[in-house]
Amino acid sequence: MNEQKLSKRLEKVAHFIKPQSRIADIGSDHAYLPCYAVLQGFASFAIAGEIADGPFHSAQDQVEKTGLLAQISVRKGDGLQVLERSDEIDTVVIAGMGGPLIASILENDEEKLAGVSRLILQPNIAANRIREWGVRHQFKIVAEEIVEEDRKIYEILVLERSHVPVNYSEDELFFGPFLLKEKNAAFRSKWQHEQDTWKKITENIEKQGKTSENELKLTELRAQIKRVEDVLK
């Protein structure tokens, strides 16, 4: 993977960037995505944000090597704190983190999103936490994609500001409104795997004997298993 050829997952993420956007890639690692986005014309300006020294210096080296110092600013900081109002960022990308962490990054510095109209988010787990955050902060889901790469399955969520309250059913929050309609092979594979995992956990808990804690956990797991069964019918 490099600035010319991204992974399948990141390439899908990049193609949700509108042409000539001003983007911030939070947790940018080697800054491959900002470099690719600028070179392909998806972004006119980009910030590559990193909190750790190693990835921060890797991103700096990559941007310099690619000759994009005038168009990409590499910054060290925690989450959205690397953004300034003068940057006029309209699109924020956060890819490769857990859903709860992405939601907390957005929650902790919500004022930094004042001029942002589009969020492109790729959680590794618990995408429902991002959808729930969107409902609370009036960001509607405008697109979703689920892709399989190297035997792992990733969800990509695209959210935009809404001027009216955002509402989804429990199933739409859990599975994704667009993904739920399509139910492609990757979707079915993901949720079949989740269901199989929950069934094994259920069997192990049942062997431990009855306790109030175990009964509560079993009730939750059986409800999740039934929900997936209904969706995959």
UniProtKB/TrEMBL annotation:
<keyword id="KW-0489">Methyltransferase</keyword>
<keyword id="KW-0808">Transferase</keyword>
<dbReference type="Pfam" id="PF04816">
    <property type="entry name" value="TrmK"/>
</dbReference>
<dbReference type="InterPro" id="IPR029063">
    <property type="entry name" value="SAM-dependent_MTases_sf"/>
</dbReference>
<dbReference type="GO" id="GO:0032259">
    <property type="term" value="P:methylation"/>
</dbReference>
<protein>
    <submittedName>
        <fullName>SAM-dependent methyltransferase</fullName>
    </submittedName>
</protein>
<dbReference type="GO" id="GO:0160105">
    <property type="term" value="F:tRNA (adenine(22)-N1)-methyltransferase activity"/>
</dbReference>
<dbReference type="InterPro" id="IPR006901">
    <property type="entry name" value="TrmK"/>
</dbReference>
